[in-house]
Amino acid sequence: MNGVDNHKRWELNYTKGLSKQTIENESVIKNMLKEIDVETDNLKIQHGVIYSVKSTLVKEWQRDNIFLAGDAAHTTPPYVGQGMAAGFRDIMNLTWKIDAVLQKQSSSSLLKTYQTERYPHARFHAHRATSFQKRLHDSLLLYEWC
Ligand SMILES: Cc1cc2nc3c(=O)[nH]c(=O)nc-3n(C[C@H](O)[C@H](O)[C@H](O)COP(=O)(O)OP(=O)(O)OC[C@H]3O[C@@H](n4cnc5c(N)ncnc54)[C@H](O)[C@@H]3O)c2cc1C
Fold this sequence. Notes:
The chain has helices at residues 20-23, 26-35, 83-102, 112-137, and strands at residues 55-57, 62-63, 66-67, 74-75, 143-145. By secondary structure, it is mainly alpha-helical. The chain has two domains: 1-51, no CATH class; 55-145, FAD/NAD(P)-binding domain (3-Layer(bba) Sandwich), CATH 3.50.50.60. The strands form two sheets. A three-stranded mixed β-sheet has the order 4-1-5, covered by helices on one side. A two-stranded antiparallel ribbon has the order 2-3. Helix 3 (83-102) packs antiparallel against helix 4. The structure holds flavin-adenine dinucleotide (FAD). Flavin-adenine dinucleotide binds next to helix 3.
């Protein structure tokens, strides 16, 4: 994937034997890129990271005064660019409600609408990103419903 100022991002399927330590090693990364015919002589590696690609949806987003939002509540494979965006929408949905309750402009029952409104949206993007992953990698997906 091309970024600004000639930055590039490559995503490679997990290779057995890779660890956090080895993926931070520039020569390991370059060898992986050479295997897919990337010219690495003038390449400066800035960052290497291992991440797992999966969907998670937590069933309970509120307990008393504790709320889950963002990746703590839901994750998706990064194929439709909606992970962080969905987290922002959670916070936009939740913060004005907390404020309204604290200002005594609304009863605390308003807070229950947070999960009711946000959960279906998060589930939609989890399914959407997962179907993209399936098309890209033709792999079965791990769903973790906590
Ligand atoms: C390769 C890739 C590409 C992506 N591309 C996109 C994209 O194009 N668009 C998009 O919208 N999203 C994208 N995402 C998803 C996006 O990065 C995440 O959804 C987003 O960063 C989640 O934000 P968050 O604040 O909910 O969680 P996090 O970013 O995980 O932040 C949680 C923070 O809490 C800290 N923390 C954890 N435990 C504790 C503790 N006990 N005490 C204090 N602090 C703690 C962590 O260190 C971390 O800083 C991508 C993700 C990946 C992996």
